[in-house]
Amino acid sequence: MNKTIALLTDFGLSDSYVGVMKGVMLSICPSARLIDLTHAIQPQNIRQAAYVLLTAYRYFSPDTVFLIVVDPGVGTPREPIAVQTHHGIYVAPDNGVLSYVLAHLEIERAVMLHNPDYHLPGISHTFHGRDIFSPAAAHLANGTPITELGPPINNLITLNTPVLAITSPRHICGEVLHIDHFGNIITSIGFLAWTTPDTLELTPQFGQNHPTLPAFRANDWHIIVGSQQLKGIRRSYGAVPPGTLAALVGSSGQLEIGVNQGSAAQALGVTLGDPVALNRE
Amino acid sequence: MNKTIALLTDFGLSDSYVGVMKGVMLSICPSARLIDLTHAIQPQNIRQAAYVLLTAYRYFSPDTVFLIVVDPGVGTPREPIAVQTHHGIYVAPDNGVLSYVLAHLEIERAVMLHNPDYHLPGISHTFHGRDIFSPAAAHLANGTPITELGPPINNLITLNTPVLAITSPRHICGEVLHIDHFGNIITSIGFLAWTTPDTLELTPQFGQNHPTLPAFRANDWHIIVGSQQLKGIRRSYGAVPPGTLAALVGSSGQLEIGVNQGSAAQALGVTLGDPVALNRE
Amino acid sequence: MNKTIALLTDFGLSDSYVGVMKGVMLSICPSARLIDLTHAIQPQNIRQAAYVLLTAYRYFSPDTVFLIVVDPGVGTPREPIAVQTHHGIYVAPDNGVLSYVLAHLEIERAVMLHNPDYHLPGISHTFHGRDIFSPAAAHLANGTPITELGPPINNLITLNTPVLAITSPRHICGEVLHIDHFGNIITSIGFLAWTTPDTLELTPQFGQNHPTLPAFRANDWHIIVGSQQLKGIRRSYGAVPPGTLAALVGSSGQLEIGVNQGSAAQALGVTLGDPVALNRE
C-alpha cells in the first residue's frame, strides 16, 4: 500500500488551498504519501503545467496517482476526468493539461468524475480541487476502480504541441518553453541524447510529427536565442567559465541555454514563447 | 495511528525553521503525518492566521493536531496553550489566533504548556515553535493526555471579529479579510450559501451577533469595493468573460471579488481591512 | 524503519526538481519520510547551505539521512560523496557544504558515490541531484551499507570558517552570516549561552581556533552593526518596544540583531558578509 499522490497546481503556497486538499485526501486515504511537484505554475498556464508533468512523471513509480489542478474553467462545463495508464493514474480537468504526458502513454481507461458518491458533499463552484479532484485522487489511491468514479470519456482535449520545426537538415526552429528557478532557458528542441561524446540525436518528444534526426555533431551548430548566437552544444555548465552563456542538453533532454553560476534569462531577456533556432554550419 | 499534525506559521520557507520543527516532531512521534497549511502568513499577522485556520480545519479528520505558531509575543509572558475540541487539538500561543475556529467548536479542555517534561531541554527565548509548541504537538499526536502538558487555563484571549454589519435588510457592510495567490479579494461577508440557483442565505460565521439573514436574490444586490460597483453575485468566475470583475461566493462561503483569469487585487488596488458594502435595490 | 531523509537544496519550489528527486527516492525507498529543510538557499551559495545545515541537524534523530544538493560544480570532476557520522548520514557534493556540521561530528566513514549500481540509468550532466544523490540517499535509508556506494575518500574539502576574531577580552569581530525571513540579522558571533540571567558565555562553533571566552555581563557590551550602535544583549525581542532594534541570542546561539515585530535588515541595510563588532565598556 502507501500509494503516492503527486500534486501539481497553480495554487501557490501562500493560502491554505493546497493544505486543505491534503486534509481532504488524508481523511479519505490516511496512508497516502503526498508529494508536491510544484504549486508555482503560473496562474491558469495549462501549457506550463503540461510541460512540468511531462518532465516529472517517469521518476515516480507506475502506481502513482497524479493530481493536477490548473483549472481556468472551474465552474464551467469542462469535464473533470481521471485517466488510467500503465504509468500512473492522472486526475485533472479535461483542458489539455494531460496531453503532453499522454503522447507517451497508452490510455487504458478514461472517465468523467460524475459520481457524486466520490465528491465532497455540497461542492463549491470555485474549488473543484478540494471538492471533486482531491476526493477522486484519494479514492483511487485507496484502490477504488476508476470505473466507479463515472462514465467513460473519449476524445480528450489536446494542446497544440510546442514548436519544433525541422525545416531542413541544417535548420531547426523551436521556442522557449520554460524558465527555471536558476534562470536557465529550456526550449522545445528535444528530446536530445548524446550518442557519442561528440554527437547528438534528436527525437521529437511532444508527439510532433517529425522524424528522428540522424545523429549530428554538437560543435557543428549555432544556437540563436534573443540577440545572441552561441556556438556548439556543451556537456555541462562547468564546460564554460563562470558567468558565461552555454547551450547544453538539459536534465529532461531539451536544448537549454544557461549561464554557469548565473541567470541566462536575466542575461538574454527572453520570455516564454520566444523563438530559438539551430543552424548547422 | 498515523496522526496528522497540520502546521500553520509565519516562518516562510526560506530558513530551516519549519524543517527543524518537523525534525523535533518526528524525533518524538516518528509516525506523525506532517502537513503544511501555509507558512506564508504575514509576519506577526495573528488575524490572518486565525482566518486561514477557520477555512481549513473542517477538511481534516477530527483527530488532527493543529500546530499554529504566529507568535509576536515569544519570550514575553503570553501563555503557550493546547486546546482539545471535538474536531481537533490546537497547539498555539494564547494570543487570539484560535478564536475564530473556537467560535465554531466546543472546548473540551484547555491547558498551559508548563510541564517541562514536554519541552526540549534548554528552551530558547526566541523560538518556542521549536522548543515548546512542536514537542507538545508531537506528544499529543502520540496520545499523551492533554492534561499531562500543564494546568488548565480559562478565558482564552479572543480577537475582535471581522466587520460584518447588517445595518438594514438593504445594507450590509464588511471588510477585505484576505487576498489570495490569484488576487481574489475575500471579504468578511459570509457565511453565504445558495438556497436555490438564484437565492442566497447569509449566516455570520465569526461569532458575530447578527441573526441569519433571510434568503435574498443574488441579482438584487450591488457590491461596492474600491472605486467599483458590481451588480449581482455570480455562481463562478466562468460566468463572466476573461478579464472581467465578478462577485461570487468563494470556496469558504464568503463574498469574494475576482477577475476571471486575472487579479482583482491588482485591478482594484484594495488592501486588507478596506471596506466592502452590499446595497440592495 | 521509516527513516527520515531531510532535503536541503538551492532548487527553489517553482520547478519540479525537488518533486522529481522525491519521486526517485520513493521509488527506491517507499517508506522514507521526506522532510524539507529549505530549498531557498541562494543559487550556488555553499556557505549559506553549510550554515543552515549546522543549525538544523541536531533536531533530527541520529539515523536521519541528510541530502544536500547545492552544487555549482555539477558536471565537473568534483566528487559526489556520502559521509556517515554518529548523528546522521550526509549525502552531498564534496565542495565544503558539509564542513561546518562535520566540525561537530566524528566521521565514521566517507565514500565517493562511484558505484553505478546505485545511480539512475543514463545519468545527466546537469542534474546529479536526481541521478546520483537522491538514489544514494534512498538506498542508505533502505539500510544499504555506505561502503557499497563507492570507495573511501579522505581529506574532504572544507570552507573557510565564518569570521570570529576575539582580538582582546574587550573586542570581538564577526560578520553577518544569514538574514532570515523576518529580516533578523544572524551573525557569526556564537555559540552564546546564558549562564545566569545577566551573563553570557561564548564558545566558537564553526571550528574556529579561539578559546571559550569567560562568562561576561550582557549589559557591558556595545554592538556595532551598519551605522548603529546598540547597548546590551537582550533576552527576547519582547524586551524592547515594537519597532525597536535589539541584539539578542538567537535560537541557534548566535548573536542576532532584530526589530521587535519588524525587519532589522530593512532598518539597517546590511548584507551577508558585513562586519559586526562587540566592544566592552
Determine the CATH superfamily of the largest domain in chain A. S-adenosyl-l-methionine hydroxide adenosyltransferase, N-terminal
Task: State the low-pLDDT regions of chain A, or none.
Answer: none
Q: What Rg of chain A is obtained from the alpha carbons, in whole angstroms?
A: 20 Å
Instruction: Summarize the biggest pleated sheet of chain A.
Output: 8 strands, antiparallel
Amount of helix of chain A = 10-25%
What is the H-and-E element order of chain A? EHEHEEEHEHEEEEEEEEEEHE
- Name of the CATH class of the largest domain in chain A: Alpha Beta
By DSSP, the count of extended strands of chain A is 17
Alpha-beta content class of chain A: alpha+beta
* CATH architecture annotation name of the largest domain in chain A: 3-Layer(aba) Sandwich
- Looking at how many chains there are and whether they match, the oligomeric state comes to homotrimer
- The CATH topology of the largest domain in chain A is what? Rossmann fold
The biggest chain-chain interface is:
A-B, 30 and 35 residues
Global mean pLDDT of chain A = 93
In whole angstroms, the N-to-C terminal distance of chain A is: 55 Å
Q: In DSSP terms, counting alpha (H) and pi (I) runs of 4 or more, how many helices of chain A?
A: 5
